[in-house]
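Long-time lurker, finally posting.

We've been working with Molybdopterin synthase sulfur carrier subunit (Caldimonas caldifontis) and I want a structural starting point before designing mutants. I don't trust myself to interpret raw outputs, so I'm hoping someone here can both generate the structure tokens and explain anything notable. Sequence follows.
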Amino acid sequence: MKITFKLYATLTDYLPPQARSDNRLELDVEPGATIADVVAPFNLPMKLVHLVLVNGVYVPPEARASHRLQEGDVLAIWPPIAGG
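Top reply, 14 upvotes:
Generated this for you. Predicted structure of Molybdopterin synthase sulfur carrier subunit:
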């Protein structure tokens, strides 16, 4: 099934070079894939996987290993952001 995977801020460095300009990648994933399944091949440090949204809805850390994605979902991830 197809989903859109989006990484923001410093996490875009984990995308393939051709996907970094618009921070998105169209992926084919197995039916029933979880957020954790999608993130794993990109070797994102889990401490940098801070804000996770599926179709604009927040997914808390305890649900990321079990939340199953659906055809057409948009998975977006942001790192922790410090400001001041």
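Before you design anything, note these points.
The domain at 2-78 is CATH 3.10.20.30 (Ubiquitin-like (UB roll)).
The helical segments are 35-39.
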